[in-house]
Hints:
By secondary structure, the chain is of the alpha/beta class. It folds into 2 domains: 2-199, P-loop containing nucleotide triphosphate hydrolases (Rossmann fold, 3-Layer(aba) Sandwich), CATH 3.40.50.300; 210-419, Rossmann fold. Helices cover 38% and strands 16% of the residues. The chain has 16 helices and 14 strands. It has helices at residues 2-7, 15-25, 40-54, 73-86, 105-114, 123-131, 148-153, 157-165, 182-191, 222-230, 245-257, 271-283, 316-323, 344-354, 384-390, 409-419; strands spanning 30-33, 64-69, 96-99, 116-121, 142-145, 172-177, 196-199, 210-216, 238-241, 262-265, 288-291, 306-309, 333-339, 360-362. Strands 3-4-2-5-6-1-7 form a 7-stranded parallel beta sheet, with helices on both faces. β3, α5 and β4 form a beta-alpha-beta unit. The longest helix is centred in the N-terminal third of the chain and has 15 residues, at 40-54.
Amino acid sequence: MLRALAREGYEKPSPIQSETIPALLEGRDLLGIAQTGTGKTAAFALPILTRLLADRRPTAPGAVRVLVLAPTRELAAQIAESFRVYGQFMRPSPKVGVIVGGVSHRPQVEMLARGVDVLVATPGRLLDHMATRRSALATTEVLVLDEADHMLDLGFIIPIRRIVAMLPKARQTLLFSATMPKEIAGLASDLLRDPVRVSVAPSATTVDRVDQRVVFVEGAAKRDILVELMQDAAVTRAIVFTRTKHGADRVTQHLQKSGVGAEAIHGNKSQNQRARALEGFRRGDTRVLVATDIAARGIDVDGVSHVVNFELPDVAESYVHRIGRTARAGASGQAISLCDNEERGLLRQIEKLTRQTLPFTDRRSPIVTRSPGRPGGPGSGQSLEGAKRRDSGARSAFPGRSSNRGETPANGAQRSVRNNRFRGA
């Protein structure tokens, strides 16, 4: 494993790894709270592989020694690949399998029949196989729940409890979550025995290296402003988030017609289509990946320079996970949110959750007034021009641009159009 880590360029452990690995090597249960992109997968994969190295008995047919539950297909595939990479020099190599929906059952049935050392699965498809008794979990030694809060958001709490009921009580259980709502606290209390608690970042905080900005924009202008953003040479690799599947397709088509290479990834796509789109994005064949929140967690692609929230998420916590797709592995990144008047309430929820006020630029027409939550909102008796003067000290939403200090909304907007670029966005 040290050879594998050296090959991957790992030099020192991240905070979550430093605090988690020793406890897991001792066999302790663990509750890990860490924001996305902090190295959680290696934090549990390395001690699990060490456990398998210490006990190299062959896995019995139909048996699963380690079970990892993940909320999405993409995250499941990524976790499995991490186990393979970290265990590439182990002899014999660990048997790692993936069980997800959207693909044929038959290869999964055959894989389960042979037995696996590490099975990474989404709860729904795993229950399908368990119902036909194609695999046994009675001898599973380790259970990992990754991104547990997202699994609860997707309605997996009942499937998770049904799966856990099939596992032996004498097991090691690890639960990782980016946030700690009451439901997760209750689940942890039920599943974990005297756990070590590791928290490397406050709940619902954003990565410091992400430069976050908001652009106030009229809804009809979002697509054109997005194209303007994507035409900047500084945007080398970007993920654009939409709220709906059809919205992702429409945005992708608009980008493609505008000469921007883009592919969509969402729940209506087949698993093969999603895998191809993600692989093309990872290789650099596609510069822009348009995604719904199915991709907000678990997509670990190096060099994502920008995340753009074409639409703000309905759930404020999703904002944290979306922008965590950039600034990974010590890099920096940019997160830009396009916010129309109807989304101002969602923006306030995000700022309340993350305990910060996001700098902004106004790209709306001069006659549009501000909504509540910012200076000059309805009922305040102020026009947009008056609000602009009050906000004149606000930073621009795009690094390298002025805040149009001292300008009226009209000439400031005209100047933005004349510039027609986003420096350093």
